[in-house]
Structure formats: structure tokens, C-alpha cells
TrEMBL record:
Protein name: Ribulose-phosphate 3-epimerase
Enzyme class name: isomerase
Name of the coding gene: rpe
NCBIfam families reported in the protein's UniProt record: PRK05581.1-4, rpe
Residues holding a divalent metal cation: H37, D39, H70, D182
Length: 226
């Protein structure tokens, strides 16, 4: 857990792409990244399983980096206490996994009460418009640029329209809600995402497939500096 404030660009390596047999070393290999992105999948909200609170807690125990926990699970409200205790600094839930907009705002408030930054995420087919007047309730807006569930998929550039709409709304309303993008981010796609207005960039395979991860984090950060 960390309490530092953030300034863009924020690079968030996703440990979904790490070698799980050497997870501690893998996290240390990206020690120069601002955040560590932790993808939680339940095999129901998405057709894949990853890991849960125990792995999250273990990662929290070996780094002071901000833990950015992305819940791709049903019933996220039942789990936020657990992930806050496990060391999450940001908890992001999917709006498709909650009943309605009121439930989303209530869950964001609950996450903030736990002393954790609250984020919402939207899948590629979910419109952003209903959320543009609710951004003050959130510290983070995570735009999925692939269908959630798996690493290593192709970036969907049309998702940058959502980023532009978020950027305008956040700036017009004078908010400091961060815009994060997740899925297919690499040296080929990060600059256009930064130009569209993203502050934080999740990258899994693009970083962990490299021999020198720290150099790739640095490379991505440079390309995202607009
Ligand atoms: C996908 C996850 C992503 C994933 C990104 O459901 O939310 O965070 O790890 O992987 P890459 O960067 O390989 O697309
Ligand atoms: Zn993710």
C-alpha cells in the first residue's frame, strides 16, 4: 500500500503476463513502474480464472508500488473489503457487473470509505455516455481496449473515442479522475492512447515478453509523454 499522489504517464504492468512460478522476481523486474496491475478473474464475469486475494496480498508484501486491482468478477460488492485488506490501493469494478448506476455509485462510495481509490471499467460494447456526469464519484475510469479475460489480444483503436469523451468531460468538470486504458497496449499503441487523453497505461505481454522489462517500462513511459 502506498499513499503517493499520481502524475501521468503512469505505467501499470499487468502481472497476468508474468511467470507465476517466479512472481516475486517478476514484480521486482518492473520496480520502475508506477503501478502494478492485478487482474482478478472469476471464470463467470469473464471466461477465465486468474488469481485472488492471497496472491494480491503476497504481491503487496514485496513492493511499495501502487496496487491497481481490476476486478473482472460478478458481485464485486462482496469482495471489496477483502481486496482492500489484501493491500489494494485502487479497486476497479466493471459497471456491467453491478445492477444499475445507483449500485455503481454506492460501491464507489464504499471503496472510498475503505481508504482505497475507486474505479469503474467498461467493456468494449458498453457506452461511456451514461457515466460522463458521474465521474466525480470515481478516482479512475478504465477503458477496456480488448474484451476482458485474456492478455495478448489486439488493441481496438476505436475505443479511443471513449477516452476522448472522458478527457473532455473530466477537463470541463475540473476533476482529477484518471483515465486508464487496458488491453493491447504496446510501443505501437501507447502514443495514440496518450494523445487521446489517457493518464495510466496497463501493459501485460508488451512488458513481460521483453528480456529487459525495466527498459520497456521506460520506453513506454517516454512514448506516452505527450
Ligand atoms: C485483460 C486484462 C488485461 C491484460 C492486458 O482482461 O484486464 O489487464 O492483462 O494484457 P495485454 O497487455 O497483454 O493486452
Ligand atoms: Zn486489467
Amino acid at each position: 500500500m502506498t499513499s503517493s499522489s499520481f502524475s501521468a504517464p503512469i505505467i501499470a504492468p499487468s502481472i497476468l503476463a508474468a511467470d507465476f512460478t517466479r512472481l516475486g522476481e517478476e514484480v521486482k523486474s518492473v520496480a520502475n513502474a508506477e503501478w502494478i496491475h492485478v487482474d482478478i478473474m472469476d471464470g463467470h464475469f469473464v471466461p477465465n480464472l486468474s488469481f485472488g486475494p492471497d496472491i494480491t496480498k503476497a504481491v503487496d508484501g514485496i513492493t511499495d508500488q501502487t496496487l491497481d486491482v481490476h476486478l473482472m468478477i460478478q458481485e464485486p460488492a462482496q469482495w471489496v473489503d477483502t481486496y482492500a485488506k489484501a493491500g489494494a490501493d485502487c479497486i476497479i469494478f466493471h459497471v456491467e457487473a453491478v445492477e444499475d448506476e445507483a449500485a455503481a455509485l454506492a460501491l464507489a462510495a464504499k471503496i472510498r470509505e475503505l481508504g482505497v481509490r475507486a474505479g469503474f471499467s467498461i467493456k468494449p460494447n458498453t457506452p461511456i455516455e451514461p457515466w460522463l456526469d458521474k465521474l466525480s464519484h470515481f478516482d479512475l475510469a478504465l477503458v477496456m481496449s480488448v474484451e476482458p479475460g485474456f492478455g495478448g489480444q489486439k488493441f481496438m483503436p476505436e475505443m479511443l473515442d471513449k477516452v476522448r469523451k472522458l478527457r473532455s468531460a473530466i477537463d470541463e468538470q475540473g476533476l482529477d479522475t484518471l483515465i486508464e486504458i487496458d488491453g493491447g497496449i504496446s510501443a505501437d499503441t501507447i502514443a495514440q492512447s496518450a494523445e487521446a487523453g489517457c493518464d495510466a497505461f496497463v501493459a501485460g505481454s508488451a512488458i513481460f515478453k521483453q528480456a529487459d522489462r525495466a527498459a520497456e517500462v521506460e520506453n513506454l513511459r517516454t512514448l506516452a509523454t505527450v
